[in-house]
Design a protein that fits this description.
CAT-like_dom_sf, acyltransferase activity, transferring groups other than amino-acyl groups, Plant_metabolite_acyltrans, Chloramphenicol Acetyltransferase, acyltransferase, 15 helices, 6-stranded mixed β-sheet, transferase, alpha+beta
């Protein structure tokens, strides 16, 4: 079923959940230079689906109180998610502020939506999940123009006699993906132990987050540079909006899986072709998906007649955790942002080449090596680069999530999730990566495509993987050269039409 379901959502409760009384003093956390680029980011959304074959009233009586209590205990340690971002007109004074009594918004609802459809990997309308995901309240504006932003909202939606969903929406300035999943797993462990901290610690070691932001080194003064860059007019336009802003609702969400065997075949092919490179599962996956997404973009044919179309640069953005890099040496439990933004730029013609995956994999692998040796080598240009990539004519693909987050190990007491996904990818020009639920070493790739792109199924990444596996046996990528010739023919036809038009007008 592809089209959006006509479902009813019933609001049961909207409340505030705070850390336990008198458990925390007033606290202010400064922003570090790692945080400031995330002024250019829309809210991040993550959803977890769990099996729960019981009616709503059973959930409300037996499970909801435990979820609330364990969330409160968790916020005692992960208090920034209950705090506010304070953003004065002088952005360099921005900080995270917590006072006793601060809280986050929790919404409880139930829905008539089809749990089987919602958790399916098959294409479904992106709007199916919208009623299950909370919206962060807009910022409060103080008399002096200071903006006060809540940093997280949570919604729990029961799908009676089938399951339930836990979805989180948060501001990336509060922390990165590793910080988010540290928080969620801590909450899940306490919930599974029914709020018994001692029992939870015995079953799963609970590592506490580190909030020591004074340990973040900034010898090159990037923090000041980045705050100055926020004063640029284009920066004002992009604040809290995201690099890629795509608000189309005529999209389908789908998930496909690359098995360990498929990935290993392509890794072997790429490695044998490139020489002695270490090609990781991450590199192979990103290469396959990026090439396939560019093929989809080109197949629409809207810009083929555009001058220098083949020579235009396309961009892939992915994130690298810097906590353990020698230049920072932060604890793995550091809470906040500690990620480098990695960029790979390639000409469209290189991506569309018959064995373009080889060149793409080589370029991504090189960027991975470079960031490990010097994560912030181009740090002074980061904000201006983000502004440039935020222009509407840029082809940008962002990689969200990571198999290292082990999202399918998030067990609140109802076993591993039936499905979990980065829900914001529909409006951010992103794909999401996670480990496979079956634990067999494969990769799940979540993406959203225009409806007509899905209907042209021969261009989906799953087919590209099959083609790449065949190429490992010397056959090249099936169909790509043929499609390339068709595109060149269309381009030549348009050029001839333009020349005839010019001749006739003369």
């Amino acid at each position: 079923m592809m089209k959006a379901e006509q479902v009813k959502v019933r609001l049961i409760e909207r409340c505030e959940v705070a850390p336990p009384p008198d458990s925390l003093p007033p606290t202010t956390l400064p922003l570090t230079f790692f945080d400031i680029p995330w002024f250019f980011c829309h809210p991040i959304k993550r959803i977890f689906f769990y099996d729960f074959p019981h009616p709503t009233h059973h959930f409300l009586q037996t499970e909801l109180p435990v979820l609330k209590h364990s969330l409160s205990l968790t916020l005692q340690h992960f208090f920034p998610f209950a705090a506010n971002l304070i953003a004065p007109p002088q952005r360099h004074l921005s900080h995270i502020h917590y006072l006793p009594g601060y809280s986050l918004s929790l919404t409880v609802a139930d829905s008539t939506a089809d749990f089987t459809l919602l958790t399916s990997d098959s294409p479904q309308d992106v709007q199916n999940w919208h009623p299950l995901i909370p919206t962060l309240s807009p910022p409060r504006v103080e008399h002096d123009g200071t903006l006060v932003f809540p940093l997280m909202a949570i919604q729990i939606t029961v799908l009676p006699n089938s399951g339930f969903a836990i979805s989180l929406t948060f501001n990336h300035l509060a922390g990165d993906g590793k910080s988010l999943h540290h928080f969620v797993k801590f909450w899940a462990s306490l919930c599974k132990a029914r709020g018994d901290v001692a029992k939870a610690s015995l079953e799963t070691p609970l590592s506490l987050p580190s909030h020591e932001r004074d340990k973040v080194k900034d010898p090159k003064g990037f923090k000041l540079v980045y705050f100055q860059e926020l004063e640029h007019s284009d920066s004002k336009r992009m604040e809290f909006a995201g690099i890629v802003q795509d608000f189309s609702t005529d999209k389908l969400r789908l998930t496909f899986t690359l098995s360990r065997e498929q990935v290993e075949k392509v890794k072997k092919w790429v490695t044998n072709t490139c020489g002695a490179l270490h090609i990781s599962t991450f590199v192979v996956t990103c290469s396959l998906v990026w090439v396939c997404m560019i093929r989809l973009e080109v197949s629409k044919g809207n810009c083929i007649a555009q001058k220098n179309y083949d020579d235009e640069l396309c961009y892939l953005l992915f994130l690298a955790d810097c906590r353990e890099f020698s230049e920072f040496s932060l604890p793995s439990t550091y809470f906040g942002n500690c990620i480098a933004i990695c960029t790979v730029a390639m000409k469209r013609s290189e991506l569309m080449a018959e064995n373009g995956i080889i060149g793409v994999a080589t370029a991504i692998e090189r960027e991975v090596r470079d960031v490990k040796s010097n994560a912030w080598r181009n740090g002074e240009n980061l904000m201006s680069d983000m502004r440039e990539l935020g222009k509407p004519d840029k082809s940008v693909l962002i990689v969200a999530g990571s198999p290292k987050f082990a999202v399918y190990e998030t067990d609140f007491g109802w076993d591993k999730p039936k499905k979990t996904e980065a829900a914001h990818i529909e409006s951010s020009g992103s794909i999401s990566l996670s480990e496979c639920r079956d634990g067999k070493g494969g990769i799940e790739v979540g993406l959203t495509l225009e409806r007509d792109g899905v209907l042209g199924g021969e261009l989906l990444p799953a087919h590209a993987v099959h083609g790449a596996a065949l190429a490992a046996h010397g056959g090249g990528i099936p169909g790509l050269a043929r499609r390339r010739r068709r595109q060149e023919t269309r381009r030549d036809d348009r050029r001839i039409q333009d020349e005839n038009s010019s001749y006739n007008s003369a």
